[in-house]
Specification:
Elements (H helix, E strand, L loop, with lengths): L4 H22 L1 H8 L3 E2 L7 E7 L24 E7 L2 E9 H6 L2 H29 L17 E2 L6 E2 L13 E2 L2 E2 L9 E4 L3 H17 L11 E4 L1 H11 L5 E2 L16 E4 L2 E5 L13 H4 L2 E5 L4 E5 L11 E9 L5 E14 L6 E4 L5
Parallel strand pairs: 1-15, 9-18, 10-13
Antiparallel strand pairs: 2-3, 4-17, 5-6, 7-8, 10-14, 11-12, 12-13, 14-18, 15-17, 16-17
Helix pairs in contact: 1-2, 1-4
């Protein structure tokens, strides 16, 4: 007795919430954004989201010495609006009707699920991660990238990667619609390591504290570091026997396994090796970035949102499944995994990057 395409679709729908949650817990930035409550599933009023960046205080201060001073009032316009788009990405795969017809029982259903949906979801996740870390995720070039050397195109127009490999005073990218040249405070922190053994940790501490000194007290500290493999291993070697292992936190009842990846502490932040940061890739054009990249992130400044509300039509956009659809004139059933998600920061200056971590 074969397995119907609808049975496969039902099994896939039941598994997808677990896969989606697994991705947020597997990727440290996604996990921290979710745990901070910065995942918004509400529908937008239009095709993009706007957010406000406050550049300074709204008023003036007058010192009263004699009592007859005129108090200066007025209103300083110190807020500007950034914007971000959520790309719509669809991962499609086809299951032959012959495979369904020849399947027999739960064991074969598990085999089909492993060979098609599970591998498809894993592939989709890895492409998103590659895009975020380096900017070269195959087919997902609309998803944001942290790499300021390259661009992404969520709505058909190229936008600059978020973190730049320059000092704040020399940064010039337009990120989320705001110019780093003309928008006060819209610059990330930066440091370059000439030799990890001679000054690697000192440079990392400098950028870490620079991120923490910025503005709003409610946003807290830089709490996440993501580094390429060599930079991460150089840090481990430099620590010698001082290494403290950390793991992403999970709550009881999570579908994801408790231990997904190990990391180490850097001051009060968690430092993870991110294989998706490939500094040998052509997307890293700055010489210092090609010699190592460590992103310093304050997860409280990062936000994710999804588009869509009807599971049976456009889907809810968070790695949601759709199908099966029979492909005309072929004995194939098509299934789709839909991601309609945006990711953005509301404060560049609370985040930073250190380059040159591969230098011994």
């Amino acid at each position: 007795m074969g397995i119907s395409a609808d049975v496969l679709a039902t099994a896939l729908q039941e598994l997808m919430p677990g896969y989606s949650e697994l991705f947020t817990l597997w990727h440290p930035l996604m996990e921290k954004v979710v745990l901070k409550g910065n995942m918004d599933k509400k529908a937008l009023d239009g095709p993009y989201r706007e957010f406000v960046v406050v550049q300074g205080g709204p008023g003036n201060v007058t010192q009263v010495t004699h009592g007859s001073e005129v108090i200066a009032g007025g209103r300083n316009q110190q807020a500007v609006r950034g914007n971000t788009y959520a790309p719509r990405l669809i991962y499609a795969f086809d299951v032959p009707g012959k495979d369904l017809a020849e399947a027999n029982g739960k064991q074969d259903l598990a085999r089909i699920l492993q060979h098609y949906p599970e591998l498809g979801m894993l592939d989709f996740h890895e492409r998103i991660s590659d895009q975020l870390g380096t900017g070269n995720g195959s087919g997902v070039g609309g998803f944001p990238t942290l790499n300021g050397d390259t661009t992404y195109s969520p709505n058909g127009t190229a936008r600059a990667g978020i973190l730049e490999y320059k000092t704040p005073a020399t940064q010039g990218n337009t990120v989320h619609g705001l110019s780093s040249t003309t928008t006060t405070g819209w610059q990330n922190q930066y440091g370059e390591i000439a030799s990890f053994a001679a000054g690697g940790r000192a440079t990392m501490r400098k950028v870490y504290y620079a991120c923490n000194r910025q503005g709003a007290k409610v946003l807290g500290k830089c709490d996440l570091l993501l580094g390429d493999e060599t930079s991460y291993l150089n840090y481990i070697t430099d620590l010698d026997d001082q290494v403290r292992i950390v793991t992403p936190s999970t709550k009881e009842g999570d579908r994801a396994p408790e231990k997904i990846r190990d990391g180490v502490k850097f001051l009060d932040a968690d430092f993870f090796l991110e294989e998706s940061i490939d500094v040998s890739a052509a997307e890293f054009t700055t010489a210092a970035a090609s010699a190592g990249v460590i992103y310093f992130l304050n997860s409280a400044t990062w936000h994710m949102y999804t588009l869509g509300h009807d599971s049976g039509k456009e889907t809810k956009g968070n790695f949601a499944t759709r199908g099966p659809f029979r492909i005309p004139e072929q004995d194939l059933f098509r299934y789709e995994i839909v991601l309609n998600m945006g990711l953005h920061t509301t404060s560049k200056r609370h985040n930073g990057v250190v380059t040159g971590g591969n230098r011994p």
